[in-house]
Amino acid sequence: VSRLATLLHEYLDGTDMTTSTAGTDTQVVVRVNLDSRSYGIWIGSDWLQGFGRIIRGVDSKSPNAMVFTSPRIGALHYERFERSLSNAGFTKIAKYEIPDGEEHKTTGEWTKGSTAIADNFPDTDIKPVVFNLGGGIVGDVGGFVAGTFWRNGLRYVQVPTTLLACVDCSVGGKVGVNLGNVKNQLGLFYQPHLVLVDVAFLDTLEDAEMRSGAAEVVKYGVACAEDVFDLLESHAEELLHRDRSVLQQLVKRCCEIKADIVRRDERDLTGERMLLNFGHTIGHAIETASNFAFRHGEAVAIGMLGATRMAVELGRCDQTLYDRLLTMVQRLGLQTTASNLDVEHVLTAMARDKKFVDGTNCFVLPTRLGLAKLEHNVPTGVVRRIVESCLS
Ligand SMILES: NC(=O)c1ccc[n+]([C@@H]2O[C@H](COP(=O)([O-])OP(=O)(O)OC[C@H]3O[C@@H](n4cnc5c(N)ncnc54)[C@H](O)[C@@H]3O)[C@@H](O)[C@H]2O)c1
Ligand SMILES: [Zn+2]
């Protein structure tokens, strides 16, 4: 049955979604349709032992696997992951651990990761498949290594282990590293060849990381799809408690939404992909100004509240949307303000953001639940007042 399901999946390559079975469980497959760069996002629970069969659909013969992970994730999950790769027929498996922390998302780690591939797999005829077992940092750095290696890049598989990476980072092919303290300044669009989500990895994730990832789910709910917000309103606590079924449903919906946006605006050119930056203009600035003391999602939550207050002030949406968002952020245990930051630092960080084109500004503002629009040239007085309110 499982073999037939795979064949069916391969046959249905162009469809958006299908389901299949591997191991003992059922997985949902969300397709990212990008012509020759299309790939599947397989979402399931407790199915790591079933990864091999799916991976072999991407590369049927390479015996070489290069795994990027981090010391913390590696200690928890590498052994089982390696076993799963061995079972899939990989005979030479090398590992490089990118140290934990945003401060290691650097060109230095890109060099070390690339060197690990060159050292372990000197035979250029047998290219390794790259696996990024980790959160957004491992995925971004490992994906950048894969994308830049041997000019044409190596095939790579995202195996997200944080909620943020499951719902966002692993999909869409934005990979790169920071330069100085400018986030993601070096990078490229290089789509993965496969994304394998096992929500069971999240069992070992710190609660604070779950909350941070949940903020990104809120983002999809407010800016893109009302049903995601409704799901959250009925299941926020189950999500934080890692209820498998709630996790799978939400991850699937977020991946569907992102897949659809990426299909229409793969390279951030039409403005559509920019909608996923709801809460990120102020959020990124808070991350930077706090020297990354705030996790990505923690800062984005405060940024989403700021952007929604801005939308209310400019008459783009009504107060009830703000109230629902505020209640949700509080239910998820996320901070609603960043009280110890300096307003000038945050404004300076914001002005450097790539979304501030030619000195003008651009915010993603919700117009109603599940819908957002880009707003250009918001008066600087309004921007300052909103940022101040995010910090008080
Ligand atoms: N490429 C994209 O499209 C995209 C989108 C959003 C964010 N990002 C990037 O993602 C990064 C943040 O990613 P993140 O939030 O996943 O953080 P992260 O990768 O730093 O992981 C957070 C922490 O959790 C630990 N961890 C990960 N999985 C674990 C597990 N299963 N059990 C226990 N501990 C675990 C890690 O070791 C780390 O300490 C940022 O650099 C951000 O810029 C990229
Ligand atoms: Zn984000």
Radius of gyration: 20 Å
**Averaged pLDDT, please?**
92
> What ions, cofactors and ligands are bound?
nicotinamide-adenine-dinucleotide, zinc ion
Helix content: 40-55%
The strand order across the widest sheet is 1-2-3-10-7-6-4-5
Strand proportion, as a percent range, falls in: 15-25%
Largest sheet: 8 strands, mixed
N-to-C series of helices and strands: HEEEHEHEHEHEHEEEHHHHHHHEEH
- Measured between the Cα atoms of the first and last residue, the distance is 58 Å
Beta-strand segment tally: 12
Q: Any overview of this molecule?
A:
This protein is an alpha/beta fold and 392 residues long. The protein is 47% helix and 19% strand. Helix 5 links the parallel strand 6 and strand 7 (156-160). It starts with a helix and ends with a helix. It binds nicotinamide-adenine-dinucleotide and zinc ion (ZN). Residues 70, 72-73, 76, 100, 102, 105, 134-138, 140, 161-162, 164-165, 168-169, 172, 174, 183-184, 201-202, 204-205, 209, 212, 296 line the site of nicotinamide-adenine-dinucleotide.
Keywords:
392 residues; 8-stranded mixed beta sheet; two-stranded antiparallel ribbon; 14 helices; binds nicotinamide-adenine-dinucleotide; binds zinc ion
Short description:
This protein is an alpha/beta fold and 392 residues long.
Give the SSE map:
Elements (H helix, E strand, L loop, with lengths): L1 H10 L5 E6 L2 E8 L6 E6 L6 H8 L5 E6 L1 H17 L4 E6 L9 H14 L8 E6 L1 H13 L7 E5 L2 H7 L4 E6 L2 E8 L4 E5 L8 H17 L2 H15 L3 H21 L15 H10 L6 H18 L5 H13 L11 H9 L10 E7 L2 E6 L3 H12 L1
Parallel strand pairs: 3-10, 4-5, 4-6, 6-7, 7-10
Antiparallel strand pairs: 1-2, 2-3, 8-9, 11-12
The site of zinc ion has 5 residues, from helix 11.
